[in-house]
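Appendix B: a complete holo record

For completeness, this appendix reproduces one full record from the ligand-bound portion of the collection. The bound molecule is LLZGTKA7. The inputs are the chain sequence and the ligand SMILES; the output is the full three-dimensional arrangement of the complex, encoded as structure tokens. No fields have been trimmed.
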Amino acid sequence: MSAREPFGARLRRAMDERGPLCVGIDPHASLLAEWGLNDDVAGLERFSRTVVEAMADRVAVLKPQSAFFERFGSRGTAVLEKSVAEARAAGALVVMDAKRGDIGSTMAAYAESFLHEDAPLFSDALTVSPYLGYGSLRPAVELARESGAGLFVLALTSNPEGGEVQHARRPDGLDVGATMLAHLAAENAGERPLGSFGAVVGATLGDLSSYDLDVNGPLLAPGIGAQGATPADLPAVFGAAVRNVVPNVSRGVLRHGPDVAALRGAAERFAEEIRAAVAAG
Ligand SMILES: O=c1ccn([C@@H]2O[C@H](COP(=O)(O)O)[C@@H](O)[C@H]2O)c(=O)[nH]1
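The structure of the chain with LLZGTKA7 bound, as generated:
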């Protein structure tokens, strides 16, 4: 067991101190253009540095979307490494959105890439895909436990296509999304104040009262802003589990850049709406 405090405990404290908002670092080509930046490594670096400077000392979580860095090859990955290190040094928790998933030793290698404390891309948590079977994630669960990191497992994603997989039913009637939630509840059993193994559950999904969202872990909720959900939707979607929701906003904040004050203003407005919604929920 690592001496490092588990991710769930660190996240609970960050959410209580800073509010639960997670801002995405998603350097879309279209956003680079809107910010007056070139769609190249220099533009990527400037974009990412600006978001980290604007947000890392005030929001609980930053979530870089790995795909937008990977498309620039090794130089993009170098920018990602730097962004992760700077965001963590400034006090934000970093959830790497890389949605990794594979079997056995390959999954173990993915886990080492993001969850080993000596890895250049070491992050506080990683998004993972369980669609090779939840058990295929075991190497990542084990390494996360050792290093004090966390996972966010895709359970009920925010995109409309997700249902064809996630609503598929097992012979006993439980659907795939509910199965993932049940695995996570078992993973987090007995953990206080919050387990380190969370689910991705879209804020776009409407009433989820047929699901048991009480997994004793965080629920990363993308879909607010550009995908149409609003902070006011959170209590109706998540019910009593809203207290453990980490709402993610990427383009809804980023489109206000590159001005740092404007980015901060947009994030503060979302944070305030989220606070009000959670308090009322
Ligand atoms: O179900 C999911 C899982 C991940 N995402 C990711 O979150 C952000 C959302 O960006 P917005 O600009 O706020 O729409 C993006 O990185 C997605 O890949 C998701 O949207 N839904």
